[in-house]
Amino acid sequence: MASIPVIAIIDVGKTNKKLFLFDEDYNIVHERSARFTETTDEDGDPCENLESLRLSVFDSLRFVSSQNKFDVKAINFSAYGASFVYIDEEGAPLTPLYNYLKQYPPQLKEDFYSQYGGEELFSVQTASPVLGSLNSGMQVYRLKHEKADIFKRLKYALHLPQYLSYLVSGRACSDITSIGCHTNLWDFKKAAYHNWVNKEGFDKVFAPIVPYHETVPSVFPPDAYKVGAGLHDSSAALIPYLLNFREPFALISSGTWCISLNPFNNTPLTPEELRQDCLCYLDFKGNPVKASRLFAGYMHDEQVKRIADHFQQDPVRYRNVVFDAVTVRNLRAQYPQGISFEQRDLSAFTSDIQAYHQLIADLVVQQVQSTQLVLSGSPVKRIFVDGGFSKNGIYMNLLAAAFPGIEIYAATIAQATSLGAALAIHQSWNKKNIPNNIIELMYYSPQIDVISAI
């Protein structure tokens, strides 16, 4: 039997590290996942186990090479952003992979912004709210000013997706999607690195930017893989939608963070939007994508635990709660609205299912506020929701009620982030046309009785 041509995608999330094999029609024909125990950096702060991650990449390569039924044509990578790997001349990491939630020194932050125009002006220029270590450029600035001896040995600072690519290709490169995700590095008006990057000498440690579709041979003969440069995960997840839909749309990519992405909003960020955690990404072609973020997935999981504990139920019970419009209407009539669910007294609810409906209703109120930030001033008529909340009937019905003038769809797409990374280098390995059925949509119409209750 002839082997199946496939592309391998290594997708590195904060929790799960996954390998997917896609066939030429972009069906997943194999997948495997792993979790690593975190380690700590020199300050005792938790961080990614970089050595385990490195070994897992090579383990994945050995695995795909051993599978005779698959003919691996190419490999690409997607990974979370805001994380740098610092390598020396030999390609060896010089530091731990610092956590983007690591506390940033207040004095160093103050020194930086006072030197480069102040927080408000700088944030507008770079479309990056002031986020400390989550602005990954600030991590490089910290390395230079706190660990000068290590900085002197630095050959390249590679964002995590590009480091993964480097392990397989031996090519050090930068990618526009990793640079353009709240890094403080990119001047969105100039469409180039911000002036401070050159003033600090970082242009010497940032590898050349390569096109999203460019591939190079792997450094592991005889396996003649074509290796992509890697992509930031949120930007990769947008690719299937950009390739399939031409009419203006917004995407709510839901997970731990619910990120509202609008590729059709070209209005500059205002200081007020930045203060509300609005920002801009760069898509795989270098175009700005207005975005806002809400920690909704995390909030949901934490409050589900609270509901389950209070009502002595298994948290699994809330994975498939059926939407009940009558319950929503009663909640609107009986309980004060406009407060966050963690402030609510659970003993006030008559049942755990009623409490769960209120949790989702409270999250949707916050979601609407967050999504509105990227809709203003753009002609969006459709919103797609993918990820965990797209499978939540309560969330989807309430979202449809909150946006009666916009079509709301739950999008079912097999691993959007990994699929996007595969589609980005389609022309390098796949002779077929990109199929037009890779996204399944379910329309949610706004129910009159729910609208009247909002």
Automatic annotation (TrEMBL):
Keywords carried by this UniProt record: Kinase, Transferase
GO MF annotation, one: kinase activity
UniProt keyword Cell cycle present: no
Domain called Carbohydrate kinase FGGY C-terminal: residue spans: 247-428
InterPro entries referenced in this protein's UniProt entry, alphabetically: ATPase_NBD (IPR043129), FGGY_C_2 (IPR049382), FGGY_N (IPR018484)
Domain spans labelled Carbohydrate kinase FGGY N-terminal: 7-195
Family: Belongs to the FGGY kinase family.
UniProt-listed PANTHER family: SUGAR KINASE (PTHR10196), XYLULOSE KINASE (PTHR10196:SF57)
Name of the protein this chain belongs to: Carbohydrate kinase
